[in-house]
Amino acid sequence: MRRVRLLTFNIAHARGPLLHQSLRREARLRANLLRIARLILRLDVDIVALQEVDEDSRWSGGFNHLAFLQEHTGMPHAVHGVHNRREGLYHLNYGNALLSRYPVHHHELVAFGRRTVGEKGFLFAELETPAGRLPVVNVHLDHRSRPARLRQAGQLGDFLDQQRVHRGARWRTGPLVCGDLNCSAGRPDATAALLDHLGLSSAYTLWPQGRAGRTFPSLWPQRALDYVYLPEDCRQPETMVVRSTLSDHRPVLVEFSLARRN
Length: 262
Description:
Blueprint (H helix, E strand, L loop, with lengths): L3 E7 L15 H18 L3 E8 L10 H9 L3 E10 L5 E9 L3 E8 L9 E9 L2 E9 L5 H22 L8 E5 L9 H9 L5 E4 L18 E6 L3 E7 L10 E6 L5
Parallel strand pairs: 1-2, 7-8
Antiparallel strand pairs: 1-12, 2-4, 3-4, 5-6, 6-7, 8-10, 9-10, 11-12
């Protein structure tokens, strides 16, 4: 099969590179989402893992950002995992999302807690590729607390262990895990802890690597926060941090081969 191209991107509620969300004009939000859609098309990706995607939030125009992106990219399949829900006059409903060229066989949302503002979580999906069923996890961890991130990474690891028992026999490879981890890989934190946990079942590599992996803030990146964990069956990986200021994060693109099994 052709090489698979996966993009992970925290789109920051479509506000662009600004670090603070405010009541933005809907026209400006739509214009930035259109630029994000054009970036996705230009990169010719097969799977797009997005964080901070609004379903219906007052601070970001009150419209469905994932539906807008799907319409303007033409990606045939989309799932939205809304892990932050706050109803009422100032409603805030957002989370992680996937756009995919491949059909979605199954998907689940796991929220780490029940806060109505700032809650994080992950979206698990199984994609039907020509090479077989591909499990993908799109995760967003807490940005404020290292202990909270470590608990969340442990929760994700336990979830994947359970999925391997009940669903793993039908997987082509181990889960691809990607998203905004909100911490670097170079110090004891959730990024390294999750890599250790994944490595208990098979060999994993973490991308991007080194100083070239800095993604935040997008205007002048100083920190590596956004990653893709690839299992060993994802061969000959190539990765790059995409130069972009459409969000406060830069996107990460990974391309790899996933050969058919005989």
